Amino acid sequence: MAELQEVQITEEKPLLPGQTPEVAKTHSVETPYGSVTFTVYGTPKPKRPAILTYHDVGLNYKSCFQPLFQFGDMQEIIQNFVRVHVDAPGMEEGAPVFPLGYQYPSLDQLADMIPCILQYLNFSTIIGVGVGAGAYILSRYALTHPDMVEGLVLINIDPNAKGWMDWAAHKLTGLTSSIPEMILGHLFSQEELSGNSELIQKYRNIITHAPNLENIELYWNSYNNRRDLNLERGGAVTLKCPVMLVVGDQAPHEDAVVECNSKLDPTQTSFLKMADSGGQPQLTQPGKLTEAFKYFLQGMGYMASSCMTRLSRSRTASLTSAASIDGNRSRSRTLSQSSESGTLPSGPPGHTMEVSC
């Protein structure tokens, strides 16, 4: 950890009225498994954890999380928390291509890099926000360091190792598809890829023409070689912090997230299934995800005085009524909402909740 590089940059993005530009500080520290780069926004807040993000395969922190954290309503959250965006090794902008034969860290080893980051920053606890491979990495970290993680937002998590059938399908796909095509199939649904929207074209271009494509393939291989998290509801191996699981309706990982939900403590878990969001809800529905994240934080005891959006206020009565009726029926509740809605009722995460929004 003796080697350190620090670069100060100003994030380029549209500013809200009265908002000042955020200053981002990018650091690179050495760990037992190689160097890792991360970018810090804001300053630590007393008695509050840092928000730490980890991106999926084929992306970096900007391409994975920028639409979410630049969303207007998210500004209220980021003003209350310092945030750390981790780039997996070799995924940061301008990263050199690893030499031939380089042994890329496993996902478990990537999780073991996080303590080096927090030790350097002198941060004691985090709220993790991860997508895909990043969600797995943060979950692995939470299992080995439960006292360091106050909460987790896990988007598109697959907690299982690949089975024999998965491996066979993966190998067959590799015979006919390029690495970028396989990664796009991991990130987005077949309906999205077939529709070839502007978003799909943008990310297809990012991945296909990535100067560090060889590095991306190494991260992809590590993801496909992940171990089973062995989560068990009521067992010794489980996530002990509040968890919000998020997946898009018809997303590639919908079944895996549903299975993960069945393995977690229902008194600590919220399950958000988002309609019309595709494979990457943080890109396609940042407003709905921001609202859900805000309620998740309130349930953990933070931002109690946070203002509700007009959309939330307009639906408070109906949500409260539905919650009071369903609350008497079961601890596991389903709140069905229209595609315009995307809210979770505030309060502690004392039940598993599926919200189709």
TrEMBL record:
One of its GO terms (cellular component) is cytoplasm. It is found in: Cell projection, Growth cone; Cytoplasm. GO terms for biological process: cell differentiation; nervous system development; Wnt signaling pathway. Keywords: Cytoplasm, Developmental protein, Differentiation, Neurogenesis, Wnt signaling pathway. Pfam families: Ndr. InterPro entries: AB_hydrolase_fold, NDRG. Residues 1-22, 320-357 are annotated as: Disordered. It comes from the Eukaryota. Belongs to the NDRG family. Contributes to the regulation of the Wnt signaling pathway. Down-regulates CTNNB1-mediated transcriptional activation of target genes. May be involved in neuron differentiation. Contributes to the regulation of the Wnt signaling pathway. Down-regulates CTNNB1-mediated transcriptional activation of target genes, such as CCND1, and may thereby act as tumor suppressor. May be involved in dendritic cell and neuron differentiation. This is Protein NDRG2.
